């Protein structure tokens, strides 16, 4: 059963169809993120640093995918947005506890340092009801940092290839994990994707063939379609991603920038997810 949730922040009011799946998925991928609220969309953001080996994430949904009504007023006409940092782990816990609730209300307050108040209305078989409230700290992002919140874009990639079914890919990556920590991802524009583990005692390669390739923006006639692009990754980061993805995305692509990053894109019916895993040094 879909529930209606109210979110209030000063003059912001959101009435949206309760959709815990996205929140729970994101909580599996990252404990803390930035929530960027715009008049037409919401973005959940995690900025990593490739130099330090941390991942980046950008999950976005247009308002009509979640909201029955949507009203908001930002700080000003020029800054018609709101950005805050919150714990997805705590919010997800509250979402799960409200699974059988009759109603749920979420209120954002800017008192003191900011807080998120989640009120859940539970109704018992006797007809009596109980309202349970939880408070979670949040941190508002100052406007001078908003310019840094640019959507992740596909860089100059050497190869782009559609992924095989995620369940199959997850099964094989799990089997490779005990062999070693470094997962080599290599692919070409001829529909071939290989997952490799190389260790002193054992070398294992999983071959996927006849996959499709989206066109490269920087493609040229001189490029050999069988030339492999290679990136060495932390197998734990790859497994964490494909294990955390929920449902069956309509589109799943990896863009490989040789020796730099593996850039994953997942397109679902109601949201899109971009995830960057940096190459190992």
From TrEMBL:
GO terms for biological process: double-strand break repair via homologous recombination; meiotic DNA integrity checkpoint signaling; mitotic DNA replication checkpoint signaling; mitotic intra-S DNA damage checkpoint signaling; nucleotide-excision repair; telomere maintenance. GO terms for cellular component: checkpoint clamp complex; nucleolus; site of double-strand break. It holds the Pfam family Hus1. It comes from the Eukaryota. InterPro entries: HUS1, HUS1/Mec3. PANTHER family: CHECKPOINT PROTEIN HUS1, MITOTIC AND DNA DAMAGE CHECKPOINT PROTEIN HUS1. Belongs to the HUS1 family. This is Checkpoint protein.
């Amino acid at each position: 059963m879909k529930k209606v949730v109210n979110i209030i922040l000063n003059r912001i009011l959101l009435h949206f169809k309760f959709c815990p799946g996205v929140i729970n998925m994101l909580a599996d991928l990252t404990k803390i993120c930035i929530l960027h609220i715009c008049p037409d969309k919401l973005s959940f953001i995690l900025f990593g640093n490739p130099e330090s080996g941390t991942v980046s994430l950008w999950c976005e949904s247009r308002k009509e995918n979640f909201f029955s009504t949507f009203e908001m007023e930002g700080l000003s006409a020029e800054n018609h947005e709101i950005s805050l940092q919150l714990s997805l782990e705590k919010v997800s816990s509250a979402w799960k506890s409200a699974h059988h609730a009759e109603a749920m209300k979420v209120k954002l307050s800017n008192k003191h340092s900011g807080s998120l108040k989640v009120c859940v209305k539970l109704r018992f078989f006797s007809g009596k009801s109980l309202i349970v409230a939880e408070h979670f700290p949040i941190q508002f992002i100052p406007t001078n940092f908003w310019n840094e919140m640019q959507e992740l874009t596909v860089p100059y990639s050497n190869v782009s290839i559609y992924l095989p079914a995620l369940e199959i890919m997850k099964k094989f990556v799990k089997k490779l994990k005990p062999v070693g920590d470094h997962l080599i991802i290599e692919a070409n524009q001829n529909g071939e994707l290989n997952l490799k583990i190389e260790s002193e005692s054992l070398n294992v390669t999983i071959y996927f063939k006849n996959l499709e390739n989206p066109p490269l923006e920087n493609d040229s006639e001189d490029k050999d379609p069988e030339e492999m692009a290679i990136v060495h990754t932390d197998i734990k980061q790859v497994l964490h991603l494909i294990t955390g993805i929920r449902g069956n995305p309509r589109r799943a692509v990896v863009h490989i920038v040789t020796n730099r990053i593996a850039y994953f894109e997942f397109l679902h019916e109601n949201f899109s997810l971009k995830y960057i895993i940096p190459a190992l040094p």
